[in-house]
Amino acid sequence: MKNVIYIWSVGPGLANLNLYMVLPFVTTGVIANVFGLIATTMAIHEIGASRAHALTSASPLVTAVLGNIFLGEKLTIYLWLGLIMIIFGGGTLSYRIYGKQSSQKAKRPVFGFGLALYVTIVIGTIAVLQKYGLNLGVTPLQGLFIRFGTAAILYGIYLLITRPELNIKSSYQSPDYLWASILMTGAALLFLLALARLPATLVEGLKRTAPLFTVALSAFLLRGIEEVDWQTFCLAAIIVAGAILAMIS
């Protein structure tokens, strides 16, 4: 644990950063990587994956409003139209994808929808927070290190308190989690690199096109296992059209 804190403190050239520059990424690590993941898991448990993922597809609207207020990003009619198309297509597609996998009924709908709303706000907010931090002079690699380092310290403290006997090295699932962590870290770095060059609203909107790639991979790699019908392709086309509109704004 001491080693993790030491690595966080030295980091990839963090000596030139002050607390004001570090704070946006520390905040992101806390509200997204820790409480955001917990809230996502709880929301899926309470209302089901289809409803939870469909609701969180609205996060670009949060980014658009906050980006306009705090970053001065311009919101054109093409961008608004593109975001609405992406949200509608992505939300509906997520509902169809996850709805086919589970027939789970909502256990505590009010509580579950509240959690999903929190996750939606968090997802939309972290793009603005990280863009703000990058504008202060923090590099994408530094921001990534601070965000995930903060989350790692908090998770480490949690495990030390609740499960001191846990031996991660002896877990047969450790390699799977390691590869998943590497992929998630790579995706987060690409997200920061995009934020350093593009408006936060555009980047967040394009990120919500993820269900499109699920459909594409399912159509080619999961033939005979998962069915991709014409309605799915129509929703995918709406997402593509929305992404094009957002990019030309």
Automatic annotation (TrEMBL):
This is EamA domain-containing protein. The chain crosses the membrane at residues 20-40, 52-71, 77-98, 110-129, 141-161, 177-196, 230-248. It holds the Pfam family EamA. The keyword Hydrolase does not apply. The keyword DNA repair does not apply. InterPro entries: EamA_dom, EmrE-like. It comes from candidate division MSBL1 archaeon SCGC-AAA382C18. One of its GO terms (cellular component) is membrane. Signal peptide: none annotated. It comes from the Archaea. Residues 10-89, 111-247 form the EamA domain. Keywords: Membrane, Transmembrane, Transmembrane helix.
